[in-house]
Amino acid sequence: MTEAWWPPEGEGGDRPRPAGAGSVRVRVPAKINLYLGVGPLRGDGYHEVSTVYHAISLYDELTARRGDTLTLTMEGEGAGELPLDESNLIMRAARELADYAGVRAHARLHLRKQIPLAGGLAGGSADAAATLVACDALWGTGLSREELAVIAGRIGSDVPFLVHGGTALGTGRGEAVSPVLARAGSWHWVVTLADGGLATPEVYAQIDRMRAAGEAPRSVDAPDDLLAALRQRDPAVLGAALGNDLQPAALALWPALGKTLSAGLEAGALAAIVSGSGPSCVFLARDRPGAEKLAADLAAAGVCRAARTAHGPVAGARIV
Ligand code: C5P
Q1: What is the pTM of this model?
Q2: Are residues 166 and 243 in the same domain?
Q3: Domain count of the fold of the chain
Q4: How far apart are CA 127 and CA 159, in angstroms?
Q5: Residue pLDDT, tens place only, 250-297
Q6: What is the atom index within ligand 1 of the atom nearest the CA of 155?
Q7: What's 219's domain CATH number?
Q8: Which residue has the CA at smallest separation from atom 15 of ligand 1?
């Protein structure tokens, strides 16, 4: 009746590859936060968080091929905008893995991107997770998913979750993840993409300012209601338990998101929240046809650049 996610290994063929595979293709999902409780700012510049991550079926794809140096090319969302130099999380992930495993960071990497940049869906973190899985197979370094998750934590707070996928509780700055017990089956979502992005550090800084001015509540409690809702199959119960402490900050920085959220609720969404630091928004539907209708209504309402249906939970970065 209940099962623990991490989703089954092997979904999409998570076969260990022999050292020296010529080409490896990895698919990686976007994440949403079903719940994001933000605590105080720590001495290291991060906020203590208590979050429930959920991987959804909106994917980027990374292909790694043998090469004499480390190169990155891309197509899709953000092409021409996203820097492909050493500042890219993909390059950082490849170098971190090579250092850890004591191999040379030689690969030709190509990204096909559907997850928007700076959208609150952890697209950059997802690409870093995909790089770790792809280069581990390409170079034959044979690390366990747990080892990859440790390296992932050095690259960004959301990266370890995207190595695993599924639905998971995140603590610390978000890098400490453990699977959540949930009933089998899928939830159906609509994700709206915005025209532009929000920088995560600015959204965190905004919530600090709003809290100091008494304009936003202190951290929401532990995600007990949300975890209980995940053990039921009732989308209305789940919808009532969704929560995001960063939402007031994202709305302050991007007021038009208020219209996007209310358009979704008027169109019949069971719940509507900003995804992570925004500006993407997430809407819960009762079922797949409900999600398709909701996406069409949101696109027609002119309150977003695009609306996509997705289901979750899905596996994290996996070889296809
Ligand atoms: O971990 P990551 O590099 O993705 O974080 C980006 C930025 O988001 C951090 O530099 C910090 O400003 C903010 N952040 C935070 N608290 C967290 C996670 C991220 O303040 N738990």
Answers
A1: 0.94
A2: no
A3: 2
A4: 9
A5: 999 999 999 999 999 999 999 999 999 999 999 999 999 999 999 999
A6: 3
A7: 3.30.70.890
A8: 46
